[in-house]
Structures are given as structure tokens and as C-alpha cells.
Design brief:
single chain; coiled coil; mainly alpha; about 220 residues; RGS1-HXK1-interacting protein 1; RGS1-HXK1_interactor
């Protein structure tokens, strides 16, 4: 802890003495607060270190126990494998050759390509085929809709054509009827002209002039 400041031996005023005393007590308070902070921080760090130490000991104990269990199982497996090898040497040689063969990159790729790779390729082909079926179904639906529209248009055109044919037949009948009427009028005009020729006098001449085809046409 820092020592309190020593008052000056020279004479000074009362106010200066009071200010020095106040500054000294403030420094003392700050020093004590700093010491308390350091002590609290040290205690907290020690508690954390002890907790970490206990946790580490528990973890190491658990790890040692698991290691012993794993070691026991590992050596038992090796022991059983050696006994199997001694009892079946031919099978052991075959398994060793097969394992060595599978460890090579080429045979491993070949095996993957013809097992899992083949399944993946078949799955990809199935997905592609399913996608093509969906696209084909969509195209067929669009063609059906277009066919319905074309059929509706053809039906309307047929109705219009039938209506136009009926109107054309009506017009033809009217033309024929008009032609017959014209023929009758012409026949009547010829008869009238013949009758007027038989009548003498100026009035008959005037009537013949009015009943002539030229006069009728004008």
C-alpha cells in the first residue's frame, strides 16, 4: 500500500493543510479500492482454476476408464482374429487378398461404379424419365386444349358456311323468280304491241311508242 503524504515542515495556511489532508484521504480510498479489486479478482481466478482442475481430473479419470475398456475390447478382437486365422488359414488368405484388392484405387472405383454408382445412375435415369413424362403430359394437355379450340372454330365456320349456303340458295330462288316475272312482262308487252298494231289511228301509234322495249327500258 502507498504511504500517506508527509505534511510540509514549512509554515502554511490552514486552507492548504485542509486541501492536502483531503487529497491524502482520496488517494488512500482509491488505493484501498484498488487492493479490494485485486483481491477479489485473485480469489475469482483461484476458484476458476480449482474448478477447472477438478473438471480436468474427472475427465481424465473417465477417459482412462474408457481407454481401458476400449483396449480390452481391441485385444480381444485381435485374439479372436488370430484364433480364426489359425483355424481357417485358406479363408484368411482369401479375405486378405480381397481386402488388399479393395484397397487399390482401380478396383474400388470399379466396384463403386457397378454397385452404388449404378444405383445412382438408375436413380438419375428414373428422375429424368419422370421429368420427361411430366413434360410430355403437359404437352398433351396443351394439344388437347388447342384441338378443342380448333374444333369450336370449325363448328362455327361450318355453321357460317351452312348459313351462307342457305342465303345463297334463297338469292338464287329470288333471281329465278325475278327472271320468270321479267319473262312474263316481256310476253305481255309483245302481246300488247301486237294488239296495238291492229288498232288504227294516232292514239294507237302513241301507245305503241310508249310500249316499245326502248321506251320501257328508259
Amino acid at each position: 500500500m502507498a504511504d500517506a503524504p508527509t505534511p510540509s515542515t514549512s509554515s502554511s495556511s490552514a486552507s492548504n493543510e485542509n486541501g492536502a489532508s483531503s487529497s491524502s484521504s482520496t488517494i488512500t480510498s482509491m488505493t484501498e479500492g484498488l487492493q479490494r479489486t485485486v483481491i477479489n479478482s485473485t480469489d475469482s481466478a483461484l476458484r476458476s482454476a480449482r474448478s477447472l482442475h477438478h473438471s480436468s481430473q474427472d475427465f481424465l479419470s473417465h477417459l482412462a476408464s474408457n481407454y481401458k475398456t476400449f483396449e480390452h475390447a481391441f485385444f480381444n478382437t485381435i485374439k479372436e482374429g488370430l484364433m480364426t486365422t489359425a483355424e481357417h488359414p485358406t479363408a484368411t488368405v482369401g479375405v486378405g487378398v480381397a481386402a488388399t484388392f479393395l484397397l487399390l484405387r482401380g478396383p474400388r472405383r470399379f466396384l463403386f461404379r457397378h454397385t452404388l454408382g449404378r444405383l445412382q445412375s438408375e436413380e438419375a435415369q428414373f428422375v429424368k424419365a419422370e421429368k420427361n413424362v411430366k413434360e410430355l403430359s403437359t404437352s398433351v394437355d396443351l394439344m388437347k386444349k388447342e384441338s378443342r379450340k380448333l374444333l369450336e372454330r370449325a363448328t362455327l365456320a361450318e355453321k357460317d358456311m351452312k348459313y351462307g349456303h342457305t342465303e345463297l340458295m334463297k338469292a338464287g330462288s329470288q333471281i329465278q323468280h325475278l327472271a320468270k316475272s321479267v319473262y312474263k312482262v316481256e310476253a305481255q308487252a309483245v302481246d300488247l304491241m301486237d294488239n296495238l298494231r291492229e288498232i288504227p289511228g294516232r292514239e294507237a301509234l302513241r301507245l305503241r311508242a310508249e310500249a316499245s322495249p326502248t321506251s320501257l327500258g328508259s
